[in-house]
Structures are given as C-alpha cells and as structure tokens.
Write a structure and sequence with these properties.
The protein is α+β, with helices and mostly antiparallel strands. Helix content is 27%, strand content 29%.
Length: 278
C-alpha cells in the first residue's frame, strides 16, 4: 500500500484516508464566534490556508471488500475532484469498490458518485445511506420549504440516488457490514451518520462532519456552520461525541480533519484539541 496516504491497521481491517481536495469557506458562515477569533485560532494552530476545508474520504479494506466512506466532491462547484486519481495510486479502479457508505448527502460528500456523464461512477457498488437522510431529501414538502441554494443540494442528491436506485440500502443504526456499525449523529443533516469500525486489534470512529474547522470547533464546540440543518442539535451532538471519544480514547477519522485525517481528541481548556499520532 502506498505509504504516502495515512493508514490505520486495525488488525483484520485497514482504513486509508484518501484526499479529494478542498473547498474554501468564509468565517462569516460560522456562528457563535467572532471572525477575528477564528483567524487567531487558525494562526495559533499554524494553519497556512485558514479558510481551506479539506475533504477526506476513507477506504476500508476488510473481508475481501473495498468499502468507501463518502466520495468527496468530485469537482462539483469546483471543489475537490482528486479521489479517483488517489484510488488509482492504490491500483483501485471505481469498479473495484463494493460499497459506498455515506455520512450524509451534502455535495462535498456525494459529488464524487457520478462521472462527467452523470452516470454512476462506482457502478458495482451498493450505496448505503441513512433512511432519515434519504427520506428527507426525497420529500417534495421539504424541497418546497428550503432556499434556492439548498434546492440545488436536493436536486444533486436526488439525481445521484436515481442513478444508484437499484443498489441503495437504507440504514438507521447498528451493523452495516461485519465489524462496521452505523452511529446516528443527527444535527448537521437530518440523517448525519458516523461509522464505528472494529478490528481485531483496534477500532476507530469515522465521524463525518462533526467539525469543519477542527481547531475552531474543538476549542469552541458551540460554534455552528451555516451548512447545519439544526445548528443547536449539531452542537449538542458534537459536544456529546467529543466527550465520548476523549473519555474512551477512541481514534477518530474526520472528513474535514486535514490531510492527516486521523487523530485522538483530548480535553484542553476551554474545550478540546486534536492530537495526531500513530
């Protein structure tokens, strides 16, 4: 396996973080925090591009299967688009992917599911998504109630679901594949989902979009982002998860953790911090 990618060996399971690229987000989209404070936190953390939100996906290899968690943005809105080239560096073609597990259906997580002809890119893969997420996005009543920007997200999700229709599996919680368990983490979206991966020697949690700016939202868990469906619920879920993974010393993988992708969460006044270590 190419050593240039962050990899965690859990025993009988390996998890590789694959970058799709990044998108830019202004601090004005964050609430419960001053933009100047955001700039200071990023500067103190020595973040060279303070407004860049890195996009990770995760390749899980277990029981002879190649399972992808999220697909990145795939170039949608000019975001990301590097996943397929990074898979190729591991000698993996799109048709080698057996399943794609979605944390949620925002464009930077599902944009990579379709090719340039708007057909299913991972054409041999089962697509797995929370039933709450799927049903919310398929509801015409919900579609009518949202802004034009969010209507675009609905349309992308619906188009994607249609292309994978015969291979969609809706989940709620519990075991998805042997050793892979879905964890409802609602708030960022109605069906936002994390995945706990248990190997023979270790385990980790892929927590999706619990944070977008790790240094800011770990030190200030109350900070919400405009992309949150329910900002208060998202903050409550974040606080609950931070307490759980820090107390239990659980390894975490984050879609927006930066290129290091994995880390442990430690309490650090006034909130928490991420520690990257093997």
């Amino acid at each position: 396996m190419n050593a240039s990618f962050p990899v965690r060996d859990l025993g009988n399971v390996s998890v590789t973080a694959l970058s799709d690229g990044y998108l830019e987000v202004g601090f004005n989209l964050l609430s419960n925090v001053d933009e100047k404070e955001c700039e200071k936190i990023q500067r103190d953390a020595e973040i060279s591009e303070p407004n860049a939100v890195h996009i990770n996906t995760f390749l899980v290899r277990c029981n002879g299967k190649n399972i992808l968690i999220d697909s990145g943005a795939g170039g949608v809105k000019g975001w990301g688009g590097g996943l397929i080239a990074n898979l190729a560096r591991l000698n993996i073609e799109p048709e080698d992917i057996d399943a794609v597990l979605l944390t949620h259906a925002h464009p930077d997580h599902i944009g990579g599911l379709l090719n340039s002809e708007d057909e299913a890119l991972f054409n041999c893969a089962e697509l797995i998504i929370s039933s709450d997420e799927y049903n919310y996005l398929e509801s015409d009543e919900n579609f009518a109630a949202v802004s034009d920007r969010i209507k675009g997200n609905f349309l992308l999700a619906r188009s994607t679901f249609k292309k994978y229709q015969k291979k969609i599996r809706l989940i709620d919680s519990g075991e998805v594949f042997p050793g892979i368990f879905a964890i409802p983490l609602k708030g960022h979206t109605p069906g936002h989902t994390g995945y706990r991966i248990e190997g023979e020697h270790n385990s980790l949690v892929i927590w999706g979009d619990i944070v977008h700016f790790p240094h800011i939202q770990l030190s200030r868990p109350e900070v919400a982002i405009a992309f949150d469906y329910d900002p208060q619920m998202a903050a409550e879920t974040r606080t609950r998860m931070l307490e759980a993974v820090s107390s239990d010393k659980v390894l975490v993988g984050g879609m927006h953790f930066g290129e290091q992708a994995f880390g442990y969460i430690e309490k650090h006044e006034p909130g928490y911090r991420i520690v990257h270590k093997e």
